[in-house]
Design goal:
Layout (H helix, E strand, L loop, with lengths): L1 E5 L5 H10 L3 E5 L3 H8 L4 E3 L10 E4 L4 E3 L2 E3 L1 H11 L7 E4 L7 H8 L6 E4 L18 E5 L2 H14 L4 E3 L3 H31 L4 H8 L18 H10 L6 H23 L1
Parallel strand pairs: 1-2, 1-4, 2-3, 4-7, 7-8, 9-10
Antiparallel strand pairs: 5-6, 8-9
Helix pairs in contact: 6-7, 6-8, 6-9, 8-9
Length: about 270
C-alpha cells in the first residue's frame, strides 16, 4: 500500500516513520527543504516538489494550521487538498489529521474534491513528550463525510495501521473534539495560574494547596509555570472561542493567562 504523509514536522514525521515500520510504501511531502532532508535521514522518500509524489492509496495531511490575527488560518489545508485533487484521487483515502474547525472537512469534500474521494478526519493526539504512550498509536477519534469514507478509514487506521479508534457520529463532531480537548486543557491551566497568584498574594504555598486538592478523586489541578505556551493550546482555544457567542469562560481564560504572565514577569523582576 502506498501512502503520502503531507507535512513532515513534529506530527508528520513520526506518522511517516510509523507507516514505514508497518511495511507501507511511504512518500513524504513538505515545502520546507530542511524537513524533507531530515525525513530522508530516516530512510523515507521525501521531496518538496509535488510532481515527484505519485498518486497513492492514502494521503495523510499533517500540516500545521495557524491564526491570522485573531482568525483561524486553514489555508495550508486547502492548499494541500487542491494539490491532491489535481491528481484525480477518486480511488484514494484522504485523511485530515491537522486541527481544523467544524465544517472544514465537508467544505473541502464538496468544493475541492467534488465529492469524488473518500475523506475522513482523524485528529492527531501526538505528544512529543511521550512518543511511546502518546504517540501515533493511541486511542484516537475518527469522523467521516459518509459511510463509504468511514469504512475505508476504519480499514486503513484500525486494520492496516493498528490504531484504536473512537467513531464520532459525524465528521463535524470529530473536528470539534480536537479543539475542545485543547481548549479544556487551556482552561485548566489558566485556573491553576490564577490559583497560584491568589495563593501567593495570601502568603500560601501553591504547591501545598495544589497537592492537597489533588488528593480528591475527581480533582487534578495542573502545574502553573510561566504562561501557556506552545503552538496548539493558544491556537485551539481561539478556534473554539470564535465559533460562538457562548465563549465567556474561554475568553476569560485567555485573559487570565495574559494577566498571569504579567504577574509572573513582575514577580521575577522583584526577586
Amino acid at each position: 500500500m502506498k501512502v503520502c504523509v503531507i507535512g513532515l514536522g513534529e506530527v508528520g514525521l513520526p506518522t511517516a516513520k510509523y507507516c514505514l515500520d508497518r511495511g507501507l510504501k511511504v512518500y513524504g511531502y513538505d515545502i520546507n527543504s530542511n524537513a524533507v532532508n531530515r525525513a530522508k535521514t530516516f530512510g523515507l522518500f521525501a521531496d518538496n516538489k509535488w510532481n515527484k509524489i505519485p498518486l497513492v492509496d492514502a494521503y495523510m495531511i499533517c500540516v500545521s494550521t495557524h491564526l491570522k490575527g485573531e482568525l483561524p488560518d486553514l489555508s495550508p489545508i486547502f492548499d494541500v487538498c487542491e494539490k491532491i485533487a489535481d491528481k484525480d484521487p477518486s480511488s484514494s483515502l484522504v485523511s485530515i489529521e491537522s486541527t481544523i474547525i467544524p465544517g472544514t472537512s465537508r467544505n473541502i469534500y464538496n468544493k475541492i474534491f467534488k465529492r469524488n474521494v473518500k475523506l475522513v478526519h482523524v485528529p492527531h493526539r501526538y505528544w512529543a513528550g511521550d512518543p511511546v504512550k502518546h504517540g501515533v498509536k493511541q486511542l484516537r477519534v475518527i469522523g467521516a463525510v459518509n459511510n463509504e469514507s468511514l469504512e475505508t478509514g476504519l480499514e486503513f487506521y484500525q486494520h492496516i495501521l493498528d490504531i484504536p479508534l473512537h467513531i464520532a457520529i459525524s465528521v463535524e463532531a470529530a473536528e470539534m473534539c480536537k479543539i475542545a480537548e485543547n481548549a479544556y486543557r487551556y482552561v485548566q491551566i489558566a485556573f491553576a495560574e490564577e490559583l497560584r497568584a491568589i495563593c501567593e498574594e495570601l502568603d500560601l504555598n501553591f504547591k501545598e494547596v495544589r497537592d492537597a486538592c489533588n488528593t480528591k478523586w475527581n480533582i487534578e489541578i495542573p502545574e502553573a509555570r510561566d504562561g501557556i505556551k506552545g503552538h496548539c493550546l493558544p491556537k485551539d482555544i481561539h478556534y473554539l472561542s470564535l465559533l460562538s457567542r457562548y465563549n465567556i469562560l474561554l475568553t476569560s481564560a485567555i485573559e487570565a493567562d495574559k494577566q498571569y504572565r504579567k504577574w509572573f514577569s513582575s514577580r521575577k523582576t522583584c526577586q
